[in-house]
């Protein structure tokens, strides 16, 4: 910084001010001349009158010579010389060129320009003299220099440039930096404006012109370059740190830095640093250059799309690349041998071998930066690795092309930054733009050398993480520093993944590389366990809540990068990884942070990555069932016995509370995660389908056993050496929620995604039957014809009878029962549908046996079989595993009366599942009823056509009565089931009215902003339940409308049609149609849907109008609604 302030006047009062006041930004003041003593003013006027040839209109042949003589005169004050030269330049530029040429001058203009150039540089380049320091910040000196540069280009005059001009560049950068850093100036942008600050524009022009000459600044003094480049880099970083890029200050700083860095990069390319120069470069420039490699600069590039910012980022990379990784240095970096010490078996002499060369100074400097807690500097470490790999690729490419030793030089300014990296990536954004080289350009030796370099960069960061863990993340550890360290790790890992350095098939390190990756992965996972166990007593609670999502996000990103590099880093400990993810999700139940979405997004991305990875390895079943085991481990009653399954038990706390299941359910509520499982299961080899069901059967058995142990502990029974805590009752309730909300979702996605083919159906049938047998004891208890059937269910689950539960626990116990129902019913629904697919694809003989065992009278039987049949008794919904099957309607009524009477807030998933079961039963009843009606019509026609005797006629009449009676029974059950399904229309109507009465906005706006349903069942709540019921009714309207003429249902169908028309009207407006843009998943279904969109889609479906009577009702309701509206 310089203690100077130059104030300038227009004419003869310009002088250099040597004030020692506080440093401020230097201005050229045109209207505020310095006050001088009368004697001084008199002397200046007297001198100007006595000196010959100073008036440009007089004595033209002597003007140039007299100026030179005046500037050479040692008796004339420096201030007066500067005024003379500046006035001369000013007059020359304002002078209108006439016919008089330069030949009339005693000294031609070319010689004058050479003299003025040397003289003006002498003012700018001598830092020893105080007046010359002031000259570096004097507008007039730079203006004279600019005149010489421009005129020399016009006249093709060759100029010499002093190497010490770099000092002037450094002084200007330091002056602007002192201004930007001045906290007393609240609005720097308003000050840095107007023509008073022409100095910096002139300096920028001068530097740009100077380096544009062919020879430029031929300065081979690296030390001088380094000392003056430092302030330029600090200025640029300050501009980005204070977000001043968009203003005049930022524009100048970026342009100025680009103008200076470009020749510096060329200098380093032509004159590579030697041993001592390399150390100076590392000591003085590495830190500021790495700061500029931070994501902040590249985010500015992406946001502003600024050509200058792009150019600056390229130049920063070029300076680092040429300064550190010039071809003369590259061999030293290729022989680091840093990974050998991680080999499984290594000789003692090799383990202690460390190459000590000047190249090590780079890593020593990086380590010292970490020790000084300058963690922000390390955020650009990934780009540094990227530059090193790029240099290796270029050198190999040049060698292959026969141009070894040549460099391609500084890249074009139009570079679109396709090779730049970004580490702030989600799963979907983790793909980094490919560079111009493929991974095939590496030899095995090159991969080993690159990995050694990677080890040297990552090891200090891992040691830093170990230090954090040893301190137990106590209060003295700054979580901001921890976050910076994790970001640096991810920056390096992202670059390593992008460059595709590691290939296990080409690893020649005898396992050392893989061992290092495992060590690094274990460090990250262990750190995650330590962070999860951190309590408010370890560190400030507010700070912890604020930083926890950011730290956790970086940890999961790191794990994802390790999986991208080599999946075997996990080893056989996949369950620990799932448990870590679930534990962090469970922690959300007590962590109230606005940035929770950062954590959930990172976990969901990692979950999808794991499923896709093991799907590619043909081991998707392993990934899914280890996830199920991790879910059960969240509530483990013999913790000591389960510690061998996961490293997390030793460090993580118990996170379970009432909201645990909901938090963990976020993973299974994600459509992207379920879609990953769906695709993975859908495309497994058909020969593995039966094995998958067998593994599912074993896992369901484990889940049932897990529930039985939990309920036994709750009751106080001793089972082995179980750990009994004070929260066993709470633990059992959470177990029930995890069973119904999480495990059932995994099982259903698996079963619903499985493809049944003619090739695997023969093996799938027995496997599915065995799976259903695991839930037989629980389902069969529902067949008991008394109100104690629920008690029987509890006894089978190993739980206390509800009559033995205290009054304060009955509500929680009821909720637990509902989640158990959700689990059982969903498993039965999916197995039932899958088994019917098996029946339809097996040979006729086998399919009939399977159909008979299931109680399915349609799938395997032909029309002839039906005509020859004499017993048309329906076996019931649960006839597959219960004989006789309990009426589904009775079960629905009993559950509704017991659990849905007072509050439906906690019953939403079960209500929706009962609707699914009711509609499935309606489909069966409709098919059965239609078949019987066909037989009845056939008999009546036969009686009319043929003449039967009395005995045959009596037989047919009995058959008709039997058919009519059976049809009547089926129709009565169907009407009651349809009544149950339509009975929740009042809930939908209330939801619609609440939307309309919410505020004063338009109906279209309310429809567009209304609640949406994401098609999740177990995450369903009071807001999404009406949408889900409306959706399932509209999807099955072709079945329901068959019973629209029933007297019991006419009023409900009238309500349905009214709601249908009312909720579809907002969708007809153009503004609504323009505003609605569905997000579609890969299967073509919208990811979320509203009540109004469902109605609109149904009205556009021709199926709605296929039933004649129903279509008439629609027209009638439409007319009534229109009349009311008018």
TrEMBL record:
Compositionally skewed regions (Basic and acidic residues) per UniProt: 31-45, 405-418
Disordered, as annotated region: 1-55, 397-432
The name this protein goes by in its record: Nucleolar 27S pre-rRNA processing Urb2/Npa2 C-terminal domain-containing protein
Organism: Hibiscus sabdariffa (roselle)
